Amino acid sequence: MKKLRIFLLFAASLLTGLSYAQITASELVKKTVDKINAHNNVELVFEYTITNGAALINEKHEGKATLQGKAYRIEMEDQHMISDGTTLWNYLIEDDEVMVGDASGDETLITPIKILTTYDKDYGMKYVKCGEKGIKAVEMTNPKGEFEQVLVKIDEAKHEIVSAELDDGNGNIITFDIKKTIFDQTLKADFFTFDTKAHPKTEVIDMR
Question: Does residue 55 sit within a domain?
């Protein structure tokens, strides 16, 4: 009887393990995106590297992105991109000018962030080898996508993105290393708008 019980426990354990292992790369990505969308808002603090071997480009920067529904605020060292879902403000810090446009007509500005927080069924997804404990590496490919290939690493227990490497097919590689993920912050009412009062000398270029 004792041997039978041990066997049953072993079988149950094995079946549970097999069931967990059978989760596909696509399902893991979807679970990760669904977790982000289940929260009121999310902030991603990251380091990003831009490389292009042919053009001898190798740049490393820091930034953060806050997303809430269709609204977003992306702050990088040289520019801030802010949208309330209707209007887009692209603030160029060095030039001290802000270009105002229609958010629906300039979605490509947030493609790198968007692709990390949106489940796109047009991408083929498969696991690739990853030597990091507790991390799953998913290769996403779409020859017709804004980025042809994306390698995203996901904490399989937390369902949170650890890093992503994006290839645009033209020699440009953008790598994001997510340093911190923060959910459900209390944000000011005007957080997703550009504060012209705080930048009285900034030139405003309305492109609408």
Answer: yes
Q: Is 3 domain-assigned?
A: no
The CATH number linked to 106 is 2.50.20.10
Domain of residue 66: give its range.
24-206
Domain count, the chain: 1
Note whether residue 103 is domain-resident: yes
Whether 113 is covered by a domain: the verdict is yes
The distance in angstroms from the start CA to the end CA of the chain is 78
Model's pTM, two decimal places? Answer: 0.80
152-187 CB burial, b ≥16 within 10 A, e <16: bbbbbeebbbbbbbbbbeeebbbbbbbeebeeeeee
Is a pLDDT exceeding 80 seen at residue 11? Answer: no
Say yes or no to pLDDT of 72 above 90: yes
Which residue type sits at 170? N
Report yes or no: 41 and 181 within 8 Å, Cβ to Cβ. no
